[in-house]
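hi! just following up on the protien thing from before. the input was this:
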Amino acid sequence: MTRPRSIVVAGESIAGITAARQLRELGHSGPITVIGAEDHGAYARPPLSKAVLKDDSADSRLGYRLDGLDIDAVRSPAVTADVGRRVVATANGREIGYDALVIATGARARRIAAPGQRGETVLRTLDDARRLRTRLDTARSAVVVGAGFLGLEVVSACVARDIPVTVVDVDPPLRRVLGPFVSEAITTRAGEHGVRVVVGGPAALTGDPVDGVRLADGTVLTADVVVTCCGEVPNTGWLAGTGLAGRLGVGIDPACATAVPGVFAAGDVTYLPTGGGSRTPFWSTAVAQGKAAAASALRLDPAGPPLDDYFWTEILGLSIKVVGPLPPLGEPDLVEGSVPAGSALLTWLGENGQRTVISYGKRIPVPKLRALATLPAGD
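and the predicted 3d structure came back as:
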């Protein structure tokens, strides 16, 4: 079978940009079109909450460059796909044909405002980060709904500005992802930094425009700034009628191929149907899937799996790096260093023999963490 002549990458995300670069690295010399939804072009999203909220000079260091790759960049979102004709239509009226399509349209922030309720603040794009940063410049109080990675990074930005902040969630901070041991340590650290942690039932936004949060027991918390950090929703609306997308996003196999011939997918828009369906919306997995999707689009075997179980965050001045299955349950099997002092190496050995390794504020290179995670049981 011959390789595809023209390839469309729908989504100027890290997965999409990685796929475009990989296509050239693997020798594809035909046309590549990258369709993006933002005028800013491709940029790194992790720094939005880690750096942009704290420092306006960080804006200029986010961009991903496509120089020298001979790529047609279309800055207008994809609105429909005709998989029979192999055509993607964009909001500005273009119809772009393809031999192979890589779907990398990512996800948008999940919103919890009532229908018609104005003023919900989320953080997903550069424009979102700039608006929130401007509001924090004059804020005297803040409430963050959601104590996951993003929510706690927003909390950290508030603390760095000396803004009193409350974080609200149905579970303790990061318990669903990092397990009870690390969650308790982070909760303690939050208290030491003056952060109020409220754990209870689902919260609802109050005011129009939004000015507070109503807790499950009826208590209302008001603040100058209220930020919703309640996860994300895959951007699949433009795929209606194609059979490609479901509630969890676009299903892919280990080669990042979809159920439709000639169509592949990567990044936050995807899920793996095995094991009941799982989504791993982490930067490292988006990169791994971008590379795999590019290889598969060229009818080559991917060099690696479509998952990378490494990620990192920075919470209240503490860098946390994780390699391995999540969540780690119970107490760690090994603790090196001091958790209260914010410098520890933690390891868990799961029932399946796989290790989870967490660097909790301790300076450890990522390759070493990966090596520790692959040590046989008993070592």
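The mean pLDDT is 94.
Helices lie at 14-25, 46-52, 126-136, 149-160, 175-192, 283-297, 366-373.
cheers
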